[in-house]
Amino acid sequence: MNRTRTVSAPALTGLALLTLALTATGPVAAQGAAPKPVTFSAFFADPNANWNGMQDEIGRVITAKTGVTLKAEFAVGSPDEKINLIAASGQYPDLISPKGAGGVLVDAGAMLDLTDLINRYAPNIKRIMGKEFDRMRFSNRDRGIYFIPTNDPIGQTYFDTDAWFKLQLGALKEQKYPQVRTLKDYEKVIATYVKAHPKTPDGRPTIGLSLLADDWRFLISVTNPAFWATGGSDDGEWYIDPKTYKATLHFFRPEEREYFRWLNHMNDIGLLDPESFTQKYDQYLAKIASGRVVGLIDAGWQIGDAVNALKAAGKTEQMYGRFGVTTKPGIRPAYNQPTGFVGGWGIGITKACKDPVAAIKFLDYLASPEGQVLKNWGIKGKHYTVQGSKRVIPAAVLKQKNTNPAAFQRTTGIGNYNISVRYGDGVKDQSGNYYTTTYPEQIIDAYTPAEKAALKAYKARLWNDLLPKASSFQPKAWGAAWSIQVPQDNPLNEFFNKEQDITRRAIPKMILGKPADFDRAYDAFLAELDSKLGKYAVMETELIKDRLKLWGVIK
Asked: What keyword terms does UniProt attach to this protein (predicted)?
């Protein structure tokens, strides 16, 4: 590992050139008197096991700059249920990040329209949004801005996209790094390893493939991979026709039937973890952290704590390589398909907030050049230095960050404050440095020797090199269907719970059943979806077209 890493600037994109021209906005405290201390309550629909009450190193600096301390609560279980309870109670936190349930809060009258606050007090948010400003608006019918986008960074370049089909590096190494492009290839690696190692060194059974079906995570590990493996991209439960914008439930795509048939086959031959549909999230993470699970089909952010535990324990060959596996040759996995800026999910200020001006200034500071460097790089002289004109992470700090990422985040706070609009990976500030630390040289430095050996064998520098490039796809004009907030009075709000009642019952049954019964079970599944949910596809199509009108794509 290099002691330090410097970066040569690549050719700048239009956005990067614009960024270089921006004048840095000073800290909040520099605009007048020292900021008045204020504590805001906040609720976040996404969990954060490494949150330290803003008592980490970065949090203390942010409080000194803005006066703000967050008393934060994070969702446990279903975030939508909690959001609905908050909306019904009328007892709102000062700040709230509801993911896809924002429409419930807007229709309950819980949220402030942030348009005037942004125009008056948030120059950094306004500057970053630039031409995308109107994409923050709720809908054509209600053009208020209730949420500042946090899920989708501006100008993001995905240097190391996370493919969801994962295999232990040790299994790949033992088999001399075989080709892994199709489900057949993926299955062969698992089967070969389990046959050679039926038990782990400590005497427990080796698990071939484990899935997670605990609550909403059922979507991530069980059903969403069906569209990734068949050339689709993530529009939640929908497939959107790129020419007509017509929405259909993605399960109706014939190729997805074959994906679920393969899971049925994996169960039939004993390679699917029998606890896949009963285990809880913590049990699943514990299995992964033990090194027992050869194959996973999951998002990196969902298994991150377990993988970090493997790294911290030195079990780097039980960490995972990532592959864009498909049902058959010739399908291009669409992980890198561009969406443009999707907006939608973000953080808002409720009508209960005692000081909305201080709240918007807090969020604006996090969006400022100074704030973004602070939350991504840390404190100058402590977490990074400047050599010449380049920010570099000292070797000792990089070692802490790479060997025990969870402890590093809890202690420093780096990674805890992506709670306002921000620039994405690949965008540079006016000094010519990246705003984030996620760029090729740093990514490669963070790889373990086991990862580097695998990538060398596959003739790649980054795992992303094994996937089709973004430039090979047509951008999705509607962004992503899952990011569209649904007004409370729209019957589509009924759809998700009804659909999940069907899928969570039918899909495990068909996967765990006899192969001879699979087609009959899948036909019954589609028939039930059609009879009970068919009307919602028309509503989703209307919602897609409404967004396209709001964004000026169609009239």
From this structure: Signal
